[in-house]
Every structure is written in structure tokens, then in C-alpha cells.
Specification:
It is built from 23 helices and 13 strands. The chain is α/β, with parallel strands linked by helices and 706 residues long. The chain folds into four domains: 60 residues, no CATH class; 158 residues, EIF_2_alpha (Alpha-Beta Plaits, 2-Layer Sandwich); 129 residues, no CATH class; 169 residues, P-loop containing nucleotide triphosphate hydrolases (Rossmann fold), CATH 3.40.50.300.
């Protein structure tokens, strides 16, 4: 079961008589106004007699002031992160530190100022006694700054608005000019301390880096000496291309071998081509033959002989001696041409043979160099390891040297940028911050008035004279209510003792609603009687139990709850759905279907006819009545009228009716523990009822204790 709000059910609880308290306060009004007037005069004298105090403030913005122009190395760096909330609080602690306070006290020259220096006017008798008793420290044995720290801390306030990096420095003094100077000097001293802290960090870093750089110099020299010694020992000297000589020679031989093989292939190809062209008698097309000077002369002679032979052949026969001579000369030139081509071919073949021999020689030399380079491989691995170690040490030396130079530059720079800047300087205030005359006078006067009234009210309450029991007050009849009159509590008590049916409520006015009826004149209460019995109405707790369908059997939980509450006070069980038959068997009716809520709201019956006595307890019951349709009715005024008479009203309703009654009840119990019940509970809570789930078997003691 889910419950959380206690319900007051004790009908004997006393109530406060406010009219009596008012009469007591009126009778003792001068005892109330006297202290108030004294407090007003005292506050007025105080605010005019006390020395005024002025407060001035300066504002600081926390941000990184380092930039490209103020950096020593001028390199590209990521932007520094801005201070967070913890960083702002840390800077506030620095602003309120003792070291900063001593520096400001010295700059302000507060020694001898009676406002801050306890020894400015000498030690008083009380101070001497406290020093002798050991309660206070002897200010004469303290430095001037130390004995003024306490007063200075009281006058200094450092604040930071939420979600900002702005710090407000407030300083108070009786002198407005001193208040402004104090706030400004605190801000300036704070920035100066930040700059000194940065220079100190740079100085410490330079000292530590100097030792590291010196050690790295020695280690780099030793590593390079080991490299050179090992290189000379193993003969792994470095050549022109920054490679060891065996490796460089191997590369050179490989290059020469490639060139020789190319020359051999070229010469052999040219020789083969020349031989092929000689076989095809295409000597003139051979490039080397055609470009030869001798061959060009032979070619010119052949051209000339052919021209002369052609000229002579015009007049001479082929067997003429001149023709034969020219043919013989031409054949001789052809033979010379071919001989020259063959010599060229043999030359190319000889070049190919020479290139082949060079290739063989270079191949043997390359194989030999490979063996030499392979033998030096293991030693070269060791050499590279030594060189790598030396190179790493050298790089580390260069990095640390750069840091060392930067730290030296930072230490020597006097205008080191701080991480804050002043965005508002303090000005001498014209209006004192203390005392605030109007608020102090008003607060003292109002507080004195409230305390005086509270004292007399508490005395009356503790004496018991201002408390009244509900049993001692008469209930207000329903003549002033929208529903008519309400029967007195005495008549209901009589019914609870043994009446079979309740008397109808009194109705002293003409009925204006469909559920109001005229009652016998003899039962009206006179106006004088009503005025005599008028007084505080006993509280009524309205409880809603849902969901309960119209045609379902009597709900055991609601009946048990009503009967349990009936043992504590006047209780009424109401079927909130018109036509619900769940409680018909709880009452006795000679007409079959007992009259109930339907007849009450439609005007077919009055309260006396609709309210029945429970056959098993002192509880009263209002059944659903004999409704003929599904029309819904507003029960708000009925519930208000019943609440004037009963101490507990238990309403049993369906889910739909429960949502309409939610604003009128004090507590709602939803039967069930599934999702539907949880949804109904949420809707009732949203409608204004204090709704709870009742899951499983729940005892009536738990419900009543809730």
C-alpha cells in the first residue's frame, strides 16, 4: 500500500479561539506598542550615532593574457583553457591570503590608523587583562602587519557572481578615499603576485633545466665519440653520399656493371644488324657506313662513275673498252664500299667482345664487393645503433636547450602577463554602506512588534485559555449553506445510539436546488438559536475509494474502512454513482430499493430519507438509489453539506465519477496494483486529490493509520 499523508481523525482535538486572542491583544495593546516604540527610538539613535562605513569595489576578469607577442618562442600554441569554477574559487582564496594582506597593509600605510591598528591609541585595560590571562595575544610582540591582519580581513570581501570569471574585490573603511585605494591596491597586488609567481616558476625551471642541459652535453659528446671510434675501428668510413665506403663501392660497381652490359648489348645488336644488312646488300642504309667520310667520298665517286657510264653508253656499246673501264672502276668502288661496311661490322663485333669482357670483370668485382659488404653488415648494425642513440640524445639536448632559453627569457622579462586584468577600478563612494537607516529602523520596529504579539499569544496558548474543544461548539446549520440546514450534532449522536432512521436535516430557507425539500415547521431552529450555537465547524475528512462498478457486489474494503472509521467519529458511506446497488444490503428498507444519492440530487427525497443506518455498525450509508438512466449529476454541493455534519465521509465511485470528485476529496484510495490502477491514480493526483494505490490485502488498521 502506498500512503504518505497523515489524516487527523481525533474528534477531541482543541482549536484556537482567535477572537479571544484578539481581545487579549487589544486589552494589552500598550504592552505591545511600548516595546515597539522603544525599539524604534533605539534604532533611530543607533543609526545616527554610529560612525558610517563606506565600501568600494574593484572588479577583476580572470583570463589568459599570454599571446603570440608576449611569448618568447613565438611559436604556434594551443589556446590555454580558461579557469573553471574551482579555478575561480582558488583565485578568491589567493586574494584573501595573509601574504597578500601583509603586502597591501604595507602599501596602504595602515600602521597607526586607529581603525586598523590596535596599538594606535595604546593598549586598553581590558586588552592588558586579556593578555595577562592568556586569552589574547600580546600585540606588542607581533609585527605591525600581523596585528592588523584581523581587522583588515574583516573589511575585505572577495565575491564572484555565479557562472562568471569576474571577481569583485570590496573594501570597507570609514574613509571613502581609503576604501577606494584599498580595493585598487588589493587588485594591483594580486596581479603583481601572479606575475612574480610566473617569474619564480620560470626561474626554478631554468635552474633545473641548466643541470639537465649540462648533463646532456656530456652524454652527447660521449655518444658521438663512441660512434667515431667504432667507425675507425671497423673501417666503416662514410663516403660522399653519407654511406659507408663498402656500400658505396658496391653501388658504384653495380652501376658500372649495368652500363657495361648495356654497351655490350648495344654493340652486339649493331653488329648483328650490320651483318644482316650486308647479306641483304643494303650497305648504303647502314648508319655507321653512311656517316663515314670515306664512304661518303666513295659514294660520290660511284655516283660520278654511274653518271659518266650512262653518258658514254649513249654512244658506245657495252664491249667498248671505255665502257669496260668504267664498269671495272664502278665494281672496284662497290668492293671498297662493302669492305668498309665489313670493317665497321668487325669493329662493332670487337666492341661487343670488349664489353663482354668488361661485364665479366665487373661481375667478378661485384661478387667480391658483396662478400666484403656482407662481412661489414653486422658491424654496420652496431654502428647504426650507436648513431641512433647519439642522434636521440642530440635531439633531446636541442629540445631541452630551447626550453632552457625560454625559461631564461621568461625570468628576465619584467612585464610578464598575469592571468587576470582589472576591468573596473574602485571609486570613492558618496553613500555609506553601513548603517542603512531606513531598513534598520523598519526591521527593529517590526521585529519588536512581532515578538511582543508572539509573546502574549504564546502565553495565552500555554495557559489553555485560547483553546476550545470542538465538542463545546455548536455546528452551523445548513440554513446558510447552498443545501439548506444541517441537523445538530446532538441529533446525530442520538441516531448513533439507537435511532432507526436519521432525522432530516434542518432547512430554514426556501429550497432553491432540486435536492432541497421543505421540512416540518416544528423542526426549524430559530435565528437566535442558530446565532447562539454558531462557532467553529469540526473538520471533516473526505475519502474516495475507487474503482467500484454500479452493479458489483459490496466493496469489502470501503465497507470495512467506513466501519473502522465509525469507531472514531461520525462516518458516512456514500455510493457516488447514481443507481449503484452495492450497499443496498447494508440498510433496511421496506420499499425494496432504498432511496439514496439519486433521489437526493434529483429532489425526490431529502437528507433524512436518503441517509440510512448500517445494520452492522454505527456508520451511516447513502445508497445509489433507483436511477433509471446513465445521466451524471454534480455531487459537489451535496458533499459540502454532508461535511458540515460528519467527521468522515467515504465516497465509493467508479473511475469516471472518481475523476469528477477528485477536487472535492482529501484522500483517494485506488484499488489494484496494475498499470490501469496506476494510470487512474496519476489522473486523480493531477486533478487535485492525494491519491494512493492499495495493492493486495491491506488491513483497515493501515488505512486508518494513514
Amino acid at each position: 500500500m502506498r500512503l504518505g499523508v497523515p489524516i487527523e481523525t481525533d474528534s477531541s482535538t482543541s482549536e484556537i479561539d482567535l477572537s479571544r486572542l484578539g481581545r487579549v491583544l487589544l486589552r494589552k495593546r500598550w504592552w505591545v506598542l511600548g516595546p515597539t516604540l522603544v525599539a524604534f527610538v533605539g534604532a533611530l539613535i543607533f543609526v545616527n550615532a554610529v560612525k558610517p562605513r563606506y565600501t568600494s569595489d574593484a572588479k577583476l576578469l580572470l583570463e589568459n593574457q599570454d599571446n603570440f607577442f608576449t611569448r618568447v618562442d613565438k611559436g604556434e600554441r594551443a589556446a590555454a583553457t580558461e579557469p573553471d569554477a574551482e579555478g575561480v574559487q582558488s583565485q578568491i582564496q589567493l586574494l584573501t591570503s595573509r601574504d597578500l594582506a601583509r603586502r597591501v597593509i604595507k602599501q596602504l600605510g595602515l600602521q597607526g590608523n586607529p581603525e586598523f591598528d590596535p596599538l594606535a591609541n595604546g593598549m586598553g585595560a581590558l586588552s592588558r587583562v586579556m593578555v595577562l590571562l592568556g586569552v589574547a595575544r600580546d600585540p606588542t610582540r607581533m609585527s605591525p602587519e600581523d596585528r592588523m591582519l584581523e581587522k583588515f580581513a574583516e573589511r575585505l570581501a572577495v565575491l564572484s557572481p555565479t557562472k562568471t570569471r569576474v571577481i569583485s574585490v570590496e573594501f570597507s573603511s570609514r574613509d571613502p578615499d581609503l576604501a577606494a585605494r584599498g580595493a585598487n591596491i588589493v587588485a594591483e597586488a594580486y596581479i603583481e603576485m601572479q606575475q612574480e609567481a610566473k617569474r619564480e616558476v620560470a626561474r626554478v625551471a631554468a635552474q633545473s633545466l641548466a643541470t639537465l642541459v649540462s648533463d646532456l652535453h656530456t652524454r652527447v659528446a660521449e655518444a658521438e665519440a663512441k660512434v667515431e671510434a667504432y667507425r675507425a675501428k671497423t673501417g666503416l668510413l662514410v663516403g660522399s653520399n653519407n654511406a659507408i665506403i663498402p656500400t658505396q663501392q658496391l653501388g658504384d660497381l653495380n652501376t658500372q656493371l649495368s652500363a657495361a652490359r648495356g654497351a655490350q648489348a648495344d654493340a652486339q645488336a649493331k653488329a648483328n644488324l650490320l651483318r644482316e644488312m650486308l647479306r641483304q646488300n643494303r650497305v648504303g642504309e647502314i648508319p655507321d657506313v653512311a656517316n663515314n667520310e670515306v664512304m661518303r667520298k666513295i659514294f660520290e665517286q660511284r655516283v660520278a662513275l654511274r653518271a659518266q657510264l650512262a653518258l658514254e653508253s649513249r654512244t658506245l656499246l657495252p664491249q667498248h673498252p671505255r665502257i669496260k673501264e668504267l664498269n671495272a672502276q664502278l665494281a672496284d668502288l662497290d668492293q671498297q664500299w662493302r669492305a668498309a661496311a665489313e670493317r665497321t661490322a668487325r669493329t662493332l663485333e670487337n666492341d661487343a667482345l670488349i664489353a663482354s669482357g668488361r661485364v665479366e670483370h665487373l661481375t667478378r668485382a661485384l661478387d667480391e664487393q658483396k662478400r666484403v659488404a656482407g662481412a661489414a653488415g653486422a658491424e654496420e648494425v652496431r654502428l647504426r645503433d650507436l648513431e641512433r642513440g647519439a642522434r636521440l640524445l642530440k635531439e633531446q639536448l636541442e629540445a631541452e636547450t630551447a626550453k632552457y632559453q625560454e625559461a631564461l627569457a621568461r625570468e628576465r622579462v619584467k612585464a610578464t602577463p598575469a592571468d587576470a586584468r582589472i576591468i573596473q577600478r574602485a571609486l570613492a563612494p558618496q553613500i555609506p554602506s553601513f548603517p542603512k537607516k531606513t531598513p534598520i529602523i523598519a526591521f527593529a520596529t517590526i521585529a519588536s512588534l512581532i515578538l511582543s504579539i508572539g509573546g502574549f499569544a504564546a502565553a495565552e496558548l500555554l495557559s489553555g485559555r485560547a483553546s476550545v474543544s470542538p465538542r463545546q461548539t455548536a455546528l452551523v446549520d445548513l440554513g446558510a449553506a447552498p443545501l439548506g440546514g444541517v441537523r445538530p450534532a446532538a441529533s446525530l449522536e442520538t441516531l448513533a445510539e439507537g435511532d432507526e432512521e436519521p432525522d432530516p436535516p434542518y432547512s430554514g430557507a426556501t429550497p432553491t436546488a432540486p435536492f432541497s425539500r421543505n421540512v416540518p415547521e416544528g423542526r426549524n431552529i430559530s435565528a437566535a438559536r442558530r446565532r447562539e450555537n454558531a462557532g467553529p465547524v469540526s473538520s471533516c475528512v473526505k475519502v474516495l475509494v475507487t474503482p467500484c462498478e454500479k452493479e458489483g457486489k459490496p466493496i469489502e474494503t470501503a465497507v470495512a474502512l467506513g466501519r473502522t472509521l465509525a469507531q472514531r467519529g461520525r462516518t458516512l458511506l456514500v455510493a457516488a454513482d447514481c443507481g449503484a446497488r452495492a450497499f443496498d444490503n447494508l440498510v433496511q428498507s421496506v420499499d425494496g430499493t432504498p432511496k439514496g444519492i439519486f433521489e437526493l440530487v434529483t429532489g425526490a427525497a431529502d437528507f433524512g430519507d436518503a441517509i440510512h443506518r448500517d445494520v452492522g455498525s454505527r456508520m451511516h450509508v447513502v445508497p445509489g438509489g433507483a436511477a433509471k438512466g446513465e445521466e451524471e449529476h454534480d455531487l459537489t454541493q451535496v458533499i459540502v453539506a454532508l461535511a458540515h455534519t460528519y467527521e468522515f465521509v467515504v465516497l465509493v465511485a467508479s473511475a469516471a465519477q472518481a475523476l469528477r470528485l477528485a477536487p472535492c476529496v482529501d484522500l483517494a484510495f485506488v484499488l489494484g496494483g496494475d498499470e490501469v490502477a496506476e494510470a487512474l491514480r496519476a489522473e486523480l493526483a493531477a486533478a487535485g486529490a492525494d491519491a494512493h494505490l492499495v495493492e493486495g490485502a491491506t488491513s483497515m488498521g493501515d488505512l486508518v493509520a494513514a
